[in-house]
Amino acid sequence: MNTPSIKPVFxxxxxxxxxxxxxxxxxxxxxxxxxxxxxAMVKIESPGRLIVKRQSVSDLMGRDWDLQEIHLNLISLSxxxxxxxxxxxxxxxxxx
Amino acid sequence: xxxxxKNTGNKKLGLKEKYGMMTRGLGWDTTYQAMDDVFPYDxxxxxxxxDWDKWEDPFRLTMDAYWKFQGEKEKKLYAIIDAFAQxxxxxxxxxxxxxxxxxxxxxxxxxxxxxxxRGYAHLGRSFRGASARIAxxxxxxxxxxxxxxxxxxxxxxxxxFNGLHxxxxxxxxxWYLSVPKSYFEDAQSAGPFEFITAISFSFEYVLxxxxxxxxxxxxxxxxxxxxxxxGFSAQSDESRHMTLGLEVVKFMLEQDPGNKEIVQKWIDKxxxxxxxxxxxxxxxxxxxxxxxxxxxxxxxxTYFEKNGGALFEDLSRYGIRMPKYHEVASKEKNRLSHxxxxxxxxYSHAAAFHTWVPEESELKWLSEKYPDTFDKHYRPRFEHxxxxxxxxxxxxxxxxxxxxxxxxxxxxxxxxxxPTTTCLxxxxxxGMKYHFCSDGCKDIxxxxxxxxxxSWLPVHQIFQGNCGGEGLDNVMKYYNIVxxxxxGEYMGSQDQMNWEQWTGRNHxxxxxx
Lengths: 96, 513
Description:
- The complex is a heterodimer of chains A (96) and B (513).
- Chain A is built from 3 helices and 7 strands; from the N terminus they run βαβββααβββ.
- Chain A has a single domain, classed as Monooxygenase component MmoB/DmpM (Phenol Hydroxylase P2 Protein, Alpha-Beta Complex), CATH 3.90.56.10.
- By secondary structure, chain A is α+β, with helices and mostly antiparallel strands.
- Chain B is mainly α and 513 residues long.
- Chain B is globular, with a radius of gyration of 24 Å.
- Chain B has one domain: Orthogonal Bundle (Ribonucleotide Reductase, subunit A).
- Helices cover 58% and strands 4% of the residues of chain B.
- In chain B, strand 4 and strand 5 form a beta hairpin.
- Chain B starts with 14 loop residues before the first helix and ends in a 10-residue tail after the last helix.
- The interface between A and B is large, with 31 and 40 residues.
């Protein structure tokens, strides 16, 4: 195949001090992503694919950040998921 | 069956290996009893599974990590609930009209969380794949936590506002609460694969964003720190539930080509069931939040048409199409909330919360958000009711409405292509006539009439004398609702007068946006 899908995936977090760094890291690693702020909630949308990197978040937080800590502040998401220790990926289409 | 993952010899296991060891690695095939006897419920629906080991939770969450993160979530949540109570946070909400959303939530939604707990606990016993059992067990615990945290949070409001005193009793009796109750009981009385498709996929993946995201963001916008906290804490589990929903649908589709037709039928059914349930949410968003985040129409366009559209495009490679009648839901998006709020305004004297005519600033917001429909069809009705109210003749409807046999909502909706004509459908089964609000509900009935002829329809039951006896007073006693105190018009209610006395603010101080 195949042309990768550009249909939007999204991820939404509670607005707080931890997610400020998570959102900043996502924006750095996904230049095509757009951020929308709601009361108490921040939503990031991206065409086809979005990636969260453990290292980028750890660098901004200044501590080791376990990727599964993402569960503490997650509100919602859309897309298929692939997760390893280092990366959390949202995508449409077949797994890479 | 259990393919135990190999330990690679590393000291620390990777996420994938750890997940394999802690799920499939803990399962075994029974020997002195047949697997079919131990797991008697996972085949009768016709879904064929050839290899349960292909089931994998994409988050790869294992029980040890689960308890750690859930414990942390609970600590955060209860710290805020305590702080909220200590600081009299209930007086920081925009306006006491807002509390009516909590009344509807506690009586309508929180009992569903408990029902979900029971449903997933059943699944945690029913599936023969160990990974599936573990994922559904975690969800069963999540749902119990949601019911508990909602009851704990809202119980604080019960000290100050009417109508929150007996939610569990009301859930089993009050007319409109049969809509959420029957929705969930329909799912619980189905087989395990239908249940998980109904709740995890159709409700949680496709529709739940419409409930929690605008409503919880709305709670934050309206100053309700306690509700936004339990809401988002619950929603953090919901992301995992949604993912499970998508995964289970893909799993069934990949396991056997014969599963597609069954799954599509469930998607069609449960999309429509869930959509009809969300009519209550549409009304909350457009009418019951004094400060509004987005309109129902905007939420529908974002979360269903755009995000749901992307999802179904992705599933099209399995031959799955958009749910049947999704286009009807889109045609209704600019009238749904108005039709529902008008119905509750009519029958407010028999509900467990207050209703009101929107303030001028709110009517203006509705006109702006619904330029094609609000001024033309709905504003004149509210102006008429407002005028009656000013003459001291607050309108209420003394009759009882006809209910849809399937969704149990009164047959108030309008024709998909004509918002001025009530949509009514009927069918005959074994010589009896049954009435419906829509083609979607009629189709579901006709597929399983034996199930839905048994529906406990509140209006029928009232007329048969099974709800406390004759007359509204007896029905209200049966509901444990005090007329005029727990329901009816908001203006002049005890809630309104208390609020103004305690805070020195009134509902006109709350801007619409």
